[in-house]
Amino acid sequence: MRTKLGSVLAATVLATGLGVAMAPGASAADNCWADGDGIRSWCHNVSGAPVYGYIGNNHIYPDPTKVVGYMYSNPSWFYCKLDGQAWVGGPHPTRWLLTVADNGKLGYMKDTAIYSETDPVRNC
């Protein structure tokens, strides 16, 4: 009985180890890609991510306290990216991307809500 149990456990550990070793890494995200006219870029994003408004009447400053809508589509399109804004963390810690939420409101999505690499998105 011990020999059979030991063999089953060894096989399970080996199979589990191979599955972990062969799993793709999180860094395998694809780049965002431009549409035909070059005005918008498409990126894979978190479904249901909030889209934030902007400060005052100036569209160049995202307001991290004001949610104007949500993005349930994936992939989604973005006009451009802004760096040097409010802290969001991740590989681009101060990057926000201008888009339109599913409810039609203009706003910004945090870079951390986007799976694709956002470097190819044009600057605002």
TrEMBL record:
Protein name (database record): Secreted protein
Keywords, sorted A to Z: Signal
Signal peptide segment: 1-28
Annotated organism of origin: Streptomyces olindensis
Domain of life: Bacteria
